[in-house]
Amino acid sequence: MRSLLVVDHRAAAADPQSDQLSKKQTPKYILETYGYHIIRAKDEKMAEQQMSAADAVVIHLPLNEVKGIGQRLLGRKTAPMLWWCSAYAAASSAAFCEDDVPVDGILTPSMSEQELHWALHFASKQCFERQQWANERKQLEGRLEERKWIDMAKGILCKIKNISEAEAYEVLRKQAMNERKRMVDVATSIVKVYQILQESK
Fold first, then answer.
1. Residue span of the structural domain in which 52 resides
2. Comparing C-alpha atoms, which of 47, 48, 29, 46 is closest to residue 38?
3. Do 164 and 90 fall into the same domain?
4. Is 0.90 topped by the overall pTM?
């Protein structure tokens, strides 16, 4: 992980002491000093455009702003999202510490090169796990949706043909095999045709 997108435009603009903030404490300076390639975004639109070139995102904003911009950036590309916790960002975020923020790790200006490296490493692992969980959740939701259609179709077949659930399941299975379709597709067709017939009565 070498290219980091740093989003810090609002933090600098909103901080009355930003002019006094040492250049050596900015995310851009510290990360470049440690050998990372920095892509700096001056606004959210620029951040979205540059997201594809970044291995990770470092956001230097109060937590209430991190959530919105983080979700939009993650919509563009899945990448580790880290919060730069400067004195300003921390002080501006106290009221939002319980919010659900899409952050995989925290970086601070006082971190050494090795500490920062390990924080980025673990953030990368956290991001990967978060993506796996999201994929598994999507698959489970898909299976539940399929199960719903199959159960509805079985209910309709039981009612119309006066057969048991096991027999209705077997009817669905055989029809799917005969038509070379997935069982859920056959079930969906049965349910939709039945609904149309009921509405036309």
1. 3-111
2. 29
3. no
4. no
